[in-house]
Amino acid sequence: NRYTGIVVVGGLRQAFSMPRPRLAAAPTPDLCLPPPDRTRPAPEQLYVALRHAILRLDLPPGAPVPEPFIAARMGVSRTPVREALRRLREDGLVDVLPNLGSFVARISRARQEEAVALRLLLEAEAASRLATSGPGPRLALGQLLAAQRDALAENRRDAVYALDEAFHAALFEAAGLPLMWAACRGARAHMERLHHAAASEPDRVASAVAAHAAILARIEAGDAPGARAAMTTHIAANATDLDNLARLHPDWLSP
Description:
With 255 residues, the protein is mainly α. Helices cover 61% and strands 9% of the residues. It has a two-stranded antiparallel sheet. The protein has a two-stranded antiparallel sheet with strand order 3-4. β1 (2-9) and β2 form a beta hairpin. α1 (42-55) packs across α3, α2 (67-74) packs across α3 and α5 packs antiparallel against α8.
C-alpha cells in the first residue's frame, strides 16, 4: 500500500517511501437487480435492468455504477457489465470517467428542451390529424384514459405512467403515423427521468390525466385546432417539470 523508490537530490541518491494514493470509495448503490436468467445473454439482462433503474431514478443522476458490485450481485464477470455500460453510455444515460469509474449521467437541460420541441411538433400534428378522422380509431384512447383514471384513483403510480405512454402511442397509431411515433418515442426516452420525478407529485400526475381528457374531448369533437392547442399545452408543461427539478434537485442537472 506504499510507493517506494529512489530519487536523486543534489547528486545524492535517496530512498523514499510514501502512501499509495487511493480514490475515495464510492457508496454502494441501493440497487435491486433481478436474479440472472442463465437462458438469456447476461449483457442484455444487465442493460435492461440498469436502464430501468436509471430511468426510474432508483439510480439517480450522479450516482456511481460500480462494475465490481454489479458483477458480484449478478454472479457474472465484469465483461458483460462493461458491455451493458457501453450501451448505456451510447444512450446518454451513463458517463465513464477515466480512472474514476462509471456514473449515471446528469440530466441535460438542452437535451430536455430539444425533446420538448420535437414532441410539440409531432404530437400536436398527430392530435390535429386524428380530430378529422372517424370515431373508430379513437376508441382505444377512451379505454386507456378510463384505465388511467382508475389507476390514479387507486394511487398506482407505475400503472399511471405506463398508461400515459400507451395513450400517446395509441394516438399515433390511430392517426396512422408510425414513423412519427418512433421519433417521438425516442424524445420521450430522454425525458423519462423527468417524468418519473414529476410523478412523485400527486397534483402533477392528476393534471396530466386531466390534460389527456382535454385532448380526447377536442379530438372527439372534431376540433383539429383545439386538439392541437390542448396537446401543445400538455407537452409544454414539461418545461415546468424541468424548472421544479432544478429547484428540488439542482445536483441532478448537468452544468
